[in-house]
Known about the structure:
Blueprint: H1 2-16, H2 20-24, H3 30-38, H4 45-54, H5 59-71
Helix pairs in contact: 1-3
Amino acid sequence: MIMKIGEKLHRVRKLQGLTQEQMASGIISKSQYCRIEKGSNAVRASSLIKILNQNKISVLNFLKILMIQEWGKKSYRI
C-alpha cells in the first residue's frame, strides 16, 4: 500500500495546485515527501494525518478511497 498512498497524495496535491514543499510544509522535508509520492519511502501514520489535516483533506475519505482502490467494491466484514 506504500505506492498507493504516494500515488493518492500526488493526485490530491495536484488537484489542490500545491507544490510538494507546500503540501508537506512544517511536517516532513520536501525530499522525504517526494520519496513518499514516488513510493520509495513509507509515511508514518502520524505524518500522513498531519499532512492531510494541514491541507484540509479528510483522513477518513482519503483512506476509504485507498481501500476501494486496493480491494475493489467488495464489502469486507471483520
